[in-house]
Amino acid sequence: MNGRLRAGLIAGAALALAFPLAGCGGGESTSGGGGASPEASGVSGTIALLLPETKTARYESQDRPLFEAKFKELCPSCEILYSNADQDASKQQQQAEAALTKGAKVLVLDPVDGKSAANIVAKAQQQGVKVLSYDRLTQGPIDAYISFDNERVGKLQGEGLLKALGDKAKAGDIVMINGDPTDNNATLFKKGAHSVLDGKVNIGKEYDTPEWSADNAQREMEQAITALGKDKIVGVYAANDGTAGGAIAALKGAGVSPLPPVTGQDAELAAIQRILAGEQALTIYKAIKPEAEMAAQMAYDLLQGKPPSGTTSTVKNDTKDVPSALLTPVEVTKDNVKDTVIKDGFWTVDQICTDQYAKACASAGLT
Question: How distant, in Å, are the alpha carbons of 204, 214, 218 from that of 250?
């Protein structure tokens, strides 16, 4: 195991131990209750968790239940107002305004559009409500920010793609399928990837993918195949696993075989299976459990009027240097699936190794 991987896993494990999981929440709702916590005695209040979309699987399957469970453990008497904006910035603003009307004292905001979300921050500030920017950076005078080192994510993707390409790096063109241009994280992924790839590969086509949509990514990849020729494409930088899936579908549809190396991000179940099957070169694992649970602790601190714990650095947005907690991303390939997502319990062998992937799992030593 290399040093970077070991450091990332140790950091994730340490955070996970610091903020243990208590249970799971579900559906769009207002929730309260949970296990008792000594430090929660006498504390009550309402917070809002505002997530951006459902096309990326992690938000409903990981972020929401992990955050809600930890926050309920910390504050059994508190309410959590939950909303998902379905990639609609206007809808998210309405959801935030509804939460403020219902008395939320802290907004945990993962913005659809970081710039337009500054309007949400301004309204919250007018009412003395704290704002914790979650996973994606929000503009405006936010109180704290938690995410991963997102430029590092792009660098890991670029380095992984170069390694997978080997001596074919300049034998043809690569296609870059970036994320949604309204998402600040997508900008950082792109910046990190370019810092590694520029001058070392030929970038034949590059796209910014609205809404992180796999369908949009598939269309972009089809356009690239038509423009460049399917035999000229030696690799694909895909910013996340959804766009990777779209790109791979387009390559398969064009009869490309063997598939060129394709990157990804989020360690989605389908991506892990594609990696084991040899259809995707890598993904980036961001340990969502420590991120969500640390966000819950930070929100609880803000609710009590305390400085948010765990902020060891700052990130500058358009307004200020924001107290920030940045976690470490980890590259996942076929060689370390067992030591990353399975070891952490992010996915189980049974979830990954369905009948369709039984042979690939056996080959990778998972069964």
Answer: 16, 10, 5
Q: Is 250 exposed, middle or buried (0-12, 13-18, 19+ CB in 10 A)?
A: buried
| Predicted TM-score (pTM) of this structure | 0.83
Token look-up 């590969």 returns: 201
Within 10 A of 167 (CB to CB), how many other CB atoms are there? 6
Position 192, amino acid: G
Residue-range domain boundaries for the chain = 3-142+287-328, 150-285
Q: Phi/psi of residue 341, each to 5°?
A: -70, -30
Measured CA distances, 180 to 89, 186, 213 (Å): 13, 6, 8
- Asked whether the domain spanning 150-285 has the same topology as the one spanning 3-142+287-328, the reply is yes
Beta strands 233-238 and 202-208, pairing class:
unpaired
Query: Domain 3-142+287-328, what architecture?
Result: 3-Layer(aba) Sandwich (3.40)
Q: Report pLDDT digits (tens) over 278-289.
A: 999 999 999 999
47, β-bridge pairs: 80, 106
Placement of tokens 């559906």 in the chain = 27
The class (CATH top level) of 150-285 is alpha beta
- CA 86, CA 99: separation in Å to the nearest integer? 17
Burial class, 45, CB count within 10 angstroms (exposed 0-12 / middle 13-18 / buried 19+): middle
Q: Residue 178 is encoded by which pair of tokens?
A: 């970036």
DSSP letter for 353, please: -
**Over the stretch 321-361, which tens digit does the pLDDT of each residue have?**
999 999 999 999 999 999 999 999 999 999 999 999 999 99
Report the SS3 class of residue 243.
Answer: helix
Is the distance from CB of 106 to CB of 121 less than 8 angstroms? no
